[in-house]
Amino acid sequence: MPTRRQHFVPCVYMKAWETKVETLKEPTKKFDGVYVFCGSNIGEGANRNSVLWKPHLYTIRFQYSYICKSCPKLKQDFVNMIYDYLRNYEKQPIYGKYGYSIIKTKKSIEKHFFELMDWDFYYDDGKMAKKAVIQKQIESMNSYLLESSFDDFFEKNWEKIYNDFISAVHNGIPVGLGRSERIVPEEIASNMLSAFFIMLCRNPCFDAMGIYTNIKNNILYPVFTSMCQDEDEGEGDNSSVCVEGREYADELMTGIWYSELYKMFFKNSEGFYHNAVRTALDGCQMILFEAYSEAGSFITSDNPAFEHKIVIEIRNNNGMIFPISPKYLVFIAKGDEGIDIVDHRFANTDTIRYFNKIIAQHKTNSIISNQKDISCLL
To answer: Fewer CB atoms < 10 Å away: N or C end of the chain?
Structure first.
């Protein structure tokens, strides 16, 4: 299967940090890109298409088709692929048979989808086809439904969401004399809030703000490790059992994550995303920090949308943080004036460094900047 680069940080988002860059190997060769930092204050120039991606991250392999019970569009995607494969087989069309049921149409494939491993296969002339070969081909099928959905939302809409939000804040009506809050159209504010949570959910390290960790550590790991335990082995070295149990649990969590991403795009109310957005719309407000000219620039990372929570903090900046460009950062926290009231503040060098340190703290591996040396930004 050819490698598909699926960016968990969209290229269109990183475009804001794009500048003329160079590599350590060829410092005289300039090209359009971003600076990537992995443990050093000196960045390596890279094309934004070449970083922050994983192969087939959002590709739903057929082995995860069990989630189709709650994901009908995904099921239909696999049904279409199975139909096209069987009815356009290289020799002659094939149909399935399950009990007394003849499976030739998309409707019949959908009906018996979850019994697929028990089907027998026949050519249209009545001769039996090789079941193992056909099932292997079906098991190798992949759905790119989630990848397409991310592209449709972020790659096509992010720049408009960004520009509309910045313009709305700059041109918003002041709440009161001497106050920095601005009234913006609720739809524009909601779109930015939704973009934050979509960016949060699409991260391969997505933890649903701690929910996934609790599920894995307190439920799935103990259960699957116990299931893998051979009663005859006694209390000896169980390291291999723990590894096997964790692998099963991690695979199940991947299926749960795919299901959450599906709900994000194709459900109106279910799942973490919709609950989080609804809660934030009801009880949060946003602050747009704008960097003063010459004060420095905001960085971002391979974990660009995150929750920062420290019990005791002098500046009381517990909340959700989303750098949206080198010049702008969105801060989301509890508030009682409505999501359409956005506070517009200017960030000096100290404020930029403060947030950049938090962004760096929450990275997984890499920092992204438009500056080659970030020592002055941290």
So the answer is: N
- Percent of the chain at pLDDT > 90 equals 81
What's the token pair of residue 321? 């943080």
Mean pLDDT computed over every residue of the chain: 92
- Alpha-carbon distance of 320 to 359, in angstroms, equals 11
The secondary element (H helix, E strand) that includes residue 181 is strand 181-183
Q: What is the distance between the alpha carbons of residues 123 and 36, in angstroms, rounded to a whole number?
A: 55
To 5 degrees, how large is the angle CA 331–CA 336–CA 338?
75
> Contact, 301 vs 360, CB < 8 A?
yes
Q: Tell me: the pLDDT tens digits for 256-282?
A: 999 999 999 999 888 999 999 999 999
Task: Give Cα separations from 67 to 48, 106, 328 (angstroms).
Answer: 33, 19, 39
Number of helices (H), then strands (E), in the chain: 12, 19
Helix, strand, coil % in the chain, rounded to nearest 5: 45, 20, 30
**What's the rounded Cα separation, in Å, for the pair 146 and 258?**
8
Q: What pLDDT shows up at residue 229?
A: 61
Q: What pairs with residue 329 in β-bridges?
A: 289, 323
DSSP state of 266: H
Reported as a single tens digit per residue, the pLDDT across 47-87 is 999 999 999 999 999 999 999 999 999 999 999 999 999 99
Cα–Cα distances in Å, from 328 out to 163, 301, 375?
A: 11, 14, 19
Nearest to 108 by CA among 97, 117, 123: 97
For residue 160, give both structure tokens: 């408009």
Structure tokens at 239: 């390291």
What is the distance between the alpha carbons of residues 184 and 164, in angstroms, rounded to a whole number?
10
Nearest to 34 by CA among 305, 306, 296, 326: 326
